[in-house]
Automatic annotation (TrEMBL):
Keywords: Disulfide bond, Secreted, Signal. Its main location: secreted. GO terms for molecular function: sterol binding. It is found in: Secreted. Belongs to the NPC2 family. The gene is LOC118420542. It comes from Branchiostoma floridae. Pfam families: E1_DerP2_DerF2 (PF02221). InterPro entries: Ig_E-set, ML_dom, ML_Npc2-like, NPC2-like. Residues 1-29 form the signal peptide. One of its GO terms (biological process) is intracellular cholesterol transport. One of its GO terms (cellular component) is extracellular region. This is NPC intracellular cholesterol transporter 2. Residues 32-154 form the MD-2-related lipid-recognition domain.
Length: 158
């Protein structure tokens, strides 16, 4: 049992080193914040945020998200959502694919304490207001419990 635990620890070190390497390679200055994750989040990448602390989300384009994470339990179903928070009011953004187990880089069931990369995108409609906001992305499990939740400062631009 101890030897097996050592392999898991070594694996975690390799995963963390990989994520740190990816972070350095992407040079992403994204200032995301955890908002109640049960999983361990290693890194977050948002396509429109290279080298910027506030994500410019251009109207008429897709914004992609990648979250490298490790759940703390088995996940049989995952549902994603995204909200824009303006003046403390959460407003939903429709995701092109809310099923976290389909076309997202994940294949359910997810095994606890294994590393995964989740990907999704959202279309920024031309009729969205030009505004600064907090974007909240989350992934919930089969029981409605939060797997991970992140907050990203953003601005919708023309």
């Amino acid at each position: 049992m101890t030897a097996f635990r050592g392999i898991i620890t070594l694996k975690h070190i390799f995963v963390l080193a990989f994520c740190v390497g990816i972070s350095a390679t992407l040079a992403n200055a994204l200032q995301w914040r955890d908002c109640g994750s049960e999983a361990t989040i290693f890194n977050v990448f948002v396509s429109s945020c290279e080298d910027q602390s506030t994500c410019p989300m251009k109207k008429g384009s897709n914004v992609s998200l990648v979250v490298w994470f490790e759940p703390n339990k088995q996940i049989t179903k995952a549902t994603a959502s995204m909200r824009g928070i303006m003046a403390g009011v959460p407003l939903p953004f429709p995701l092109q694919n809310p099923d976290g187990c389909k076309d997202s880089g994940l294949k359910c069931p997810l095994v606890g304490y294994e590393s995964y990369n989740y990907t999704n995108s959202v279309y920024m409609h031309e009729n969205y207001p030009t505004v600064k906001l907090l974007v909240e992305w989350e992934l919930r499990d089969q029981n409605g419990d939060v797997i991970w939740c992140i907050l990203v400062p953003a601005k919708i631009i023309n």
